[in-house]
Design goal:
By secondary structure, this protein is α+β, with helices and mostly antiparallel strands. The protein is built from six helices and six strands; from the N terminus they run ββαααβαββαβα. Helices cover 36% and strands 25% of the residues. The chain has a four-stranded antiparallel sheet.
Length: 169
Amino acid sequence: MLQSIGSKYGDMAIQTDQLDNQLLELLQREGGLSQRELATRVGLSQNACWRRLKRLEEAGVLKGRRANIDPAALGLGLTVFVMIRTRHHASDWARTFRTHVEALPEVVDFHRIGGHWDYMIKAVCADMAGYDRFYQALIQGFDIEAVTGHFAMEAILENRPLAIRSVLR
């Protein structure tokens, strides 16, 4: 059964089947699997597996593979969700602000959102002093109406893999 999933082309979703979805779920859980192991687990030849992975990469569904690192194990024990409201909505201002935020090394996620706030940032810092340095760098040179930080006390569910076969029914 073919299913549509979003791609880098917006509304032009690519068609996936059960084997594509199995590959995607395996890669989310075990990104370090070799192509040979992936092929074996889903019952494909290596060449067929490679072609599917290549198609998913070209469509923008697969956006790379990386390790899941525990920030606290590296001394980065403070996670802050920063909410920003701005007075400015012109495209030039937004582009400059985005470039500025993307350059801040503490930022791990950055979203433009709807509702009472305009942007949400997930920042990871060593401690409160590190957050203060981040905050000062964040607001430097920008007219921002409001900024507030919500400090995570515990990560209950983080980086959860997409339940592709359950969601795409």
